[in-house]
Amino acid sequence: MSAIHQFVAGYANSDAISNEARIMRSLFRSWGFESEIYCQPQSILPQLRNDARGIDTWHEAPHDDDIVILHLSMGSEVNLIFKDLSCKKVILYHNVTPPHYYDAIARQTAVQLRKGQQHVDMLAGVADVNLADSQYNASELEAAGYTNVNVLPLILDLNTHEAVDKKILRKFDDDAVNILFVGRCAPNKKIEDALLAFNVFQKCVEPKSRFISAGSFNGTERYYYLLETMKKDLALENVHFPGSVPQEHLNALFRTADLFLCMSEHEGFCIPLIEAMQHDIPILAYNACAVPETLDGAGVLFDNKQFDQVAEMMGQLVKNKPLRESVIQGQRSRMNRFRDRDAEAELKAALAPVLTATATHTK
How confident is the model over 288-303, as a mean pLDDT? Predict the structure, then answer.
């Protein structure tokens, strides 16, 4: 039997690429293929070492009629191994964050991201099928010399948002206005800009308000400390950085949010926008990279980070009921389009050239 395996640069919980790889692995197995996820051993979360295989065991697996999918997102040994494989190869590009964001925060991460940019260039023309999870990312591949790039939007499990942490609900479900951002505590997310907007909002628009930014700061501790210092310097009240949280905790934060504020300057897709729409939270987002593509006409976008104007828009989306309801209705329409997609059929269509070749070869 032929196999469809996947290579990832890191494997963890609450990680978009890891989550998608798990969903795809289940689909491949349901199609009758053997399927495993491979990663550098040191980049596999210890609790998940039974769920993914170290790339050092790859010599046990390869056959000419296998298919290997590389989730390309940063510099990694798996990229180099993928380049020299003789089997059918697919690249699924998730974007490489521009390394300059990390130069003053996490130099080793910046090094890995620069390697990632080099690997993107190196892998042009290597794969049989080139995919990207947004048109924005597809355009980056095309600019790097890739041909016939097709878009395969992220495949998500939308059934993980029901269970909630009741303790978190009790803590935050009060009469304060909750402004939420979800995403890694990373410099490209520009959480400092969200704090500056919230500073104006809390002091000039809605004093009884709270800002919550949920996301891991593992490897970006210096950035987190800068945000904590900024919070103190601005004398902000009710600002919370809970770090990486379990899904039930995150669901509770979404359940209690009044507004989702995204000031990020670099997103290849931005799953939390989908999650916010799923929870009927109006979105106010900076118009950058793949954000407008993911919103697809929903939410409210702004082009200039003039914090007094952003704070005023925040107030309108929280307090102006007709506007709020109109925005939520637009987001519901976007979510209906996203839910109605047949992700499994899209995946089969995207992989058709190599699936057909594999079927022919194995007859």
Answer: 97
Judged against a pLDDT cut of 70, whether residue 330 lies above it is answered with yes
Q: What are phi and psi of 216, to 5 degrees?
A: -65, 140
* Mean of all residue pLDDT scores within the chain: 94
Residues 238 and 211: beta-carbon distance below 8 Å: yes
Digit-coded pLDDT (tens) for 82-123: 999 999 999 999 999 999 999 999 999 999 999 999 999 999
Counting Cα atoms < 13 Å in the Cβ hemisphere of 239 gives 22
- Cα angle for residues 246, 252, 254 (degrees, 5° grid): 105
Closest CA to 65 of 323, 342, 362, 274: 362
User: Among 249, 178, 165, 167, which Cα is nearest to 212's?
Assistant: 178
Helix, strand, or coil (residue 311) = helix
DSSP code, position 44:
B
Q: How many whole angstroms separate alpha carbon 83 and alpha carbon 9?
A: 14
* One-letter identity of residue 133: D
